[in-house]
Amino acid sequence: MTVSVGLIGAGVMGADHARTLVSQVAGTTLRALSDTDLARAKAIAAETGADVATTNPMAIIKDPTIDAVLIASPDNTHRELTLACIAARKPVLCEKPLAPTAQECLEVIEAEVAAGRRLVQVGYMRRFDPAYLEMKDKLNSGQLGRPLLFHCVHRNLSAPPWFDEKMSITNSAVHEIDITRWLLGEELTSIQVFKPRTSVPDAPGSPVFLVCETSGGQIVNIENNNNGGYGYDVRGELACEKGAVSLRAPINSETSFNLLQGTSYPMDWRPRFATAYRQQLQAWIRSIETRVPTGASAWDGYAASMVAEAGLEALSSGRSVKITLASRPSIYS
Ligand code: ISE
Hints:
The protein has 333 residues and is an alpha/beta fold. It has helices at 12-24, 38-48, 57-62, 78-87, 102-115, 130-140, 165-184, 269-272, 274-290, 298-317; strands at residues 3-8, 28-34, 52-54, 68-71, 92-95, 120-123, 147-155, 188-194, 208-214, 219-225, 233-240, 244-246, 255-257, 260-262, 321-322. The longest helix has 20 residues, at 165-184. The two termini are 28 Å apart. 44% of the residues are buried. (2R,3S,4s,5R,6S)-2,3,4,5,6-pentahydroxycyclohexanone is lined by residues 156, 171-172, 175, 269.
């Protein structure tokens, strides 16, 4: 079976997914692309061999020759497009976050439950990253004892002009929120947000520092800074009773020059998580063939956005906010 895919959104991530899908993923073909900018859609379609370029995402979702839909358009379009895919009974891989608010995510969950089967996968690609997978294996081996603390750092080079403080939590730190739930198998039960001093106060993407508690009593801290100034840098260290395990970013070379020895940082997340993106797409295509869902579900998408929303409340109130999730429908157990 060859899964024919339609892609919505041909910006940075959409273009990256299109290239990965056609060059590195088996069992699929990219049939159509949509973007609000037709020239951009046409350019990526020409580069990747897709037959159709359009500005109408609904035409892609309704096209009977398209089996599955990949959504990489802006966050505030995710809910409507995902709901349309569910209505068309098409498997959909929606970029994270599933939606910026928990209420919108619950609407997706309600539609999926009514459809009677899981159709939605959320693009929390770190679940497919070799470093996080190895961290989870080491934890699960029992060798390190129980997990106590998870320290996370997430820095981008610089925030785009449209980035705002809320997005530091709802768009960026949601990755750590999701990966913590996946890694520890615990829910986050409270969140507090601190704002460190910055050289440019209230600049879009200024740093925030999140401190969360989990249902298992672990503490998770997340430094998120979209204006780190030097490169894309994601770190994580899980401290356990008898040892600790840290992530290592892929390193391919080391330069010695001018009395210095060093490795380089990527400009953004694409090179750091290239393997994760590829494995995520491959697993999604395989899950469509086998009808066995994989990756982050709509429920996971809801849980991450719910924690992020509590984070926004904590940011504005300066207080710790308790997190209570809705009850989990049985299709997600
Ligand atoms: C961006 O949207 C992503 O998803 C990247 O993975 C993340 O590192 C970045 O902070 C987000 O803004």
